[in-house]
Amino acid sequence: MDNLFFTNEHIMIRNMVREFADSEITPVAQELDELGKFPRDLVDKMGELGLMGILIPEKYGGAGLDMVAFATAIMELGRADASVAITMTAHSSLGSLPILMFGSEEQKNTYLPKLASGEMLGAFGLTEPDAGSDAGATKTKAVRDGDEYVVNGGKIFITNVGEAGVLSFTSQVVENGENIGIAAFTIPTNTEGLEIGPKEKKMGWRASDTRQLFFKDMRIPASSILGTPGEGFKTFMKTLTSGRVSIGALSVGTAVGAYERALAYSKEREAFGKSIHKFQSVGFKLANMATKIEASKLLVYHAAWMKDQGLDITKEAAMAKLFASETAMEVTTEAIQVLGGYGYVRDYGVERFFRDAKILEIGEGTSEIQRLIISREIIKDVQV
Fold first, then answer.
1. Domain boundary at 121, 137, 166, which?
2. Which of 76, 105, 154, 382 would you call most buried, defined as having the most Cβ atoms within 10 angstroms of its Cβ?
């Protein structure tokens, strides 16, 4: 696989992140999960390594690397701890990319250098209580008032927002009494009128920061808008497409983390006088896990490579996210089965990967939404 998608630079990135994950993240991952403690020290260290700005061009202080490098880093972080990985993933693909892709030069110069260094975390607000899979049904409203917009509404399940310095979000826009569609905005998180709720208590990703937020007569400059008013739907759809590659990569990392633990246990654990991996019932489980992980990697790297070529990846990103996330859920489930009762015990770590895996089938578009996207895309190839 290295020869298919990797340059020497990609291999160096993989080795660097793996070493960092093994030495810095793995030893504290269990504690972070149990305490639900945000990994601020690790985020700072990732900033020092340049990981928080992998996708940001060098002119704005980033590493200027490609999507293959980004996916590789996420896989290696996810192999150690999904909470740390999703913090970097959401910061980069959701918090930074909208500004990079659609922001004005002033917005880029204001935010991207701080995002690239890790000095500032980024967040992206899309989901609402009545606008999840149907993201276009957003009820947050920004009403034009002179040189400002007055924003009211709210968002839920927003990653990083309690720790972030900048927030991008979507909203209906009303100008001169007329709704002109959805727009995207970028604002500092200390903006008056923005209220951030308490940290959610989650099944998995427990160390990551997830919160609800509220816009209460929040006044923001008209210059806060990202791109063109009324084209916010396109903005967040392009953002989500890249994000699906990221979640696919995180899914691979989560699956690998559980698989490696199950494989090691199967060689150490003996039953009826031999290592349990020699029993077909266990060996076949491990074979299926390994095969689906490799298939997931190929789908993710193919989508990442296509994006780096400037190609449309709507279908490929959905396929990668769908297959890899469902593989993560299956592999983490089977890993617990290989460990038996020990798999259910926190000390062995596998149950953490299981809890972290479920959200991968939900966030950035559910499995059902991915199948809907794929079905629409493949029909386009049919000649009538």
1. 121
2. 76
